[in-house]
Design brief:
Distance between the termini of chain B: 43 Å
Helix content of chain B: 55-70%
Number of strands of chain A: 2
Strand order of the largest sheet of chain A: 1-2
Number of strands of chain B: 2
Number of helices of chain B: 15
CATH topology of the largest domain in chain A: MetI-like fold
Low-confidence stretches of chain B: 285-291
Number of domains of chain A: 2
CATH architecture of the largest domain in chain A: Orthogonal Bundle
Radius of gyration of chain B: 24 Å
Mean pLDDT of chain B: 87
Largest sheet of chain B: 2 strands, antiparallel
Strand content of chain A: under 5%
Number of domains of chain B: 1
CATH class of the largest domain in chain A: Mainly Alpha
Strand order of the largest sheet of chain B: 1-2
Number of helices of chain A: 13
Radius of gyration of chain A: 26 Å
Order of helices and strands of chain B: HHHEEHHHHHHHHHHHH
CATH topology of chain B: MetI-like fold
Order of helices and strands of chain A: HEEHHHHHHHHHHHH
CATH superfamily of the largest domain in chain A: MetI-like
CATH architecture of chain B: Orthogonal Bundle
Oligomer: heterodimer
Shape of chain A: flat
């Protein structure tokens, strides 16, 4: 009896120790989350209902009579400023082209790596380069390359003089979009390749015996098996449609002269780097509007991605 | 390519991959040759090899690479060495906390799955990956200012010390995959929970920890947008490159000098990549996004 009591005392002391341990190591992460995620987003919400007070030189609540003033300003800006609508369209175009071209190439390349075909180790290293090289370095090199080397190359090869691809307004957007896709899918390729390498050899061997062609194996076995990994990328890139700057800030800083190539992500980031405190409420309201548009799109895409998973995981 | 692999798909993929790799390598090689050209040579011969190799371009960049920093409202010039120190502090510190916090959070939730908070944390990680928050920069800046840590290293470290994101899932999977016998044996030997975590469980995932740390370090080393918004008094090397590339009136204004600057900043990361290629490109996989 005495021993049982001792044992139960020990167990309860151990459990108390475990609980203290659990909460003590989670205290900082949870506090950080409360302040920098919940707090920041509540603050963002509150900012959207504030305005700059010139007398106090600070921000104050707009008042219930003018509650939606910042949101009205956002919609007015959309109506009056053509470039904002264009930026909205550019964000959608960059998302769709990035998704279809980038995803298709990433899946095809990952199949090549997974099968360990000729020179796959070398290709793997090269595909990893855009991840380790800073985007600002790649942008600087690419910028001067398409402005100087490509026109010189075309002149040498075809005898035709062409403008730099970024100087020419007709090719500027495509050139920037190409860069964004060109450098954007390498890491996806490696992760898909890694997911494919977990596919059981028995499945692949059975398919081979049944005379399945490489293309059918790729489309009907490999892709469905790695569907959850594909879903992570598709859903997360959908969630960032209006955050994607398409590297415009790296190309042009805060003042890209051609409004026709702006994206919503660029508009917001460049805006906040140059905006005075008085403009913060407008950008906070703008961010909230964009969040409200992105949430349903992301949830719909997630719903469809879940349907692609044959195991219903 | 072996004969059995010679399908139309494989040959086409090989050709596309080759073109892609050439398109990536060609500009890099071009940048290396441009970095040792004279400006005059570059203007009249942007594509060909240098007529004379000017290696002094690298010395000029090392000596003259400067950037404007705003310290206590006053503009200061920071040189390469100062930027290197600030880059190491920012990237090293941020990478460490951005690895440690998801690691220990994942440990607690994987070790005590029966606690309600563990399930909630897992759900939060999944939810924040699929619920987008757009444009919270102004709120983040004002929050940091209110806490008195805006434009400080401590501020950006705390900002980056969150458990959200895919690496929480990576650590969670790693801890769930470890045999319970290790911690149970230590418990029987009288070790407390802190000892079990620090002396037994964390060393077992040290490879994953190091890989995530390296990935994060490369990410922060290359990042210039966070220092630009949240750390204007401590410009990093990437910020410096952004500055000299987008603003006139700085000391390295010619294209060959800018290319030399790119190569100088690229070298340490390239060395890191060569040294830890296998770890950086290791098999880190992730699960789905179903809540």
């Amino acid at each position: 009896m005495v021993q049982t009591r001792k044992q139960s005392l020990n167990t309860s002391r151990k459990n108390r120790g475990k609980t203290i341990f659990y909460w003590s190591i989670l205290a900082f992460p949870l506090l950080q989350f409360v302040v920098f995620y919940i707090g920041v987003n509540l603050n963002s919400f509150a900012l959207a209902f504030q305005e700059f007070d010139m007398y106090d030189e600070g921000l104050k609540f707009v008042g219930f009579d003018r509650l939606w003033t910042n949101f009205v300003a956002v919609f007015q800006e959309f109506q009056e400023a053509d470039y904002l609508l264009k930026a909205f369209n550019n964000s959608i175009i960059a998302y769709l082209i990035g998704l279809f071209v980038g995803l298709t190439l990433a899946l095809l390349f990952s199949y090549y790596l997974y099968k360990k075909f000729f020179m796959s180790k070398f290709f793997k290293v090269i595909l990893f380069l855009p991840f380790i090289i800073s985007s600002i370095i790649l942008v600087i090199i690419y910028k001067y390359f398409v402005e100087n080397a490509i026109p010189a190359f075309v002149l040498q090869l075809f005898g035709t003089e062409i403008e730099g691809l970024l100087s020419n307004p007709d090719t500027e957007f495509v050139t920037v979009l190409f860069f964004s896709i060109w450098t954007g899918f390498g890491i996806q390729t490696l992760i898909y390749g890694s997911a494919m390498s977990d596919i059981s050899n028995d499945i692949v061997d059975a398919a081979k015996i049944d005379g399945v062609t490489p293309m059918r194996e790729f489309l009907q076995i490999d892709i469905p098996i790695i569907a959850p990994t594909i879903a992570v990328f598709v859903v997360s890139s959908t969630a960032t449609i209006f955050v994607n700057q398409m590297n415009l800030f790296s190309f042009y800083g805060a003042d890209a002269a051609n409004y026709d190539i702006w994206t919503i992500g660029y508009y917001m980031y460049q805006g906040i780097t140059v905006a005075p405190l008085a403009d913060y409420p407008f950008f906070a309201a703008f961010g909230l509007v964009m969040t409200m548009i992105t949430i349903p799109i992301t949830l719909i895409v997630r719903h469809f991605m879940n349907k692609l998973d044959p195991n219903g995981r | 390519m072996k004969k059995r692999n010679l399908s139309v798909l494989n040959v086409s993929l090989f050709l596309i991959l080759t073109v892609y790799c050439i398109s990536l390598i060609w500009p890099l090689i071009w940048a290396i040759f441009t970095s040792v050209k004279e400006q005059y040579d570059f203007l009249y011969n942007p594509l060909g090899l240098p007529s004379t190799y000017i290696f002094e371009n690298f010395g000029t960049v090392l000596e003259k690479f400067e950037v404007n920093a705003i310290v206590d409202g006053i503009q200061e010039r920071h040189g390469l060495f100062q930027m290197l120190v600030d880059t190491l502090l920012y990237a090293g510190g941020a990478a460490f906390v951005a690895t440690l916090v998801p690691c220990i959070t994942a440990y607690a939730t994987a070790k005590f799955p029966q606690k309600k908070m563990s399930g909630l944390i897992y759900a939060i990680v999944i939810a924040t990956m699929i619920i987008p928050i757009v444009g919270s920069y102004p709120a983040e800046i004002t929050m940091l200012q209110n806490l008195g840590i805006y434009d400080t290293l401590l501020g950006v470290w705390i900002q980056k010390a969150n458990f959200l994101g895919v690496y929480f899932l990576v650590f969670h999977a790693a801890f769930r995959g470890l045999a319970k016998e290790y911690s149970e044996a230590a418990e029987i030997d009288g070790a407390n929970e802190f000892t079990i975590m620090s002396k037994i469980m964390l060393p077992l995932v040290r490879n994953t920890f190091f890989t995530v740390f390296l990935i994060k370090f490369v990410e922060f080393w290359n990042d210039y947008q966070v220092p630009l918004l949240y750390l204007p008094s401590r410009p990093t090397l990437s910020f410096g490159l952004y500055f000299v590339s987008n603003y006139t009136g700085n000391t390295i204004s010619t294209v060959p000098l800018r290319m030399a600057g790119c190569i100088i900043i690229l070298l340490p990361i390239l060395a890191l990549f060569i040294a830890f290629k296998e770890k950086l490109m290791g098999n880190i996989t992730m699960g789905g996004v179903k809540g």
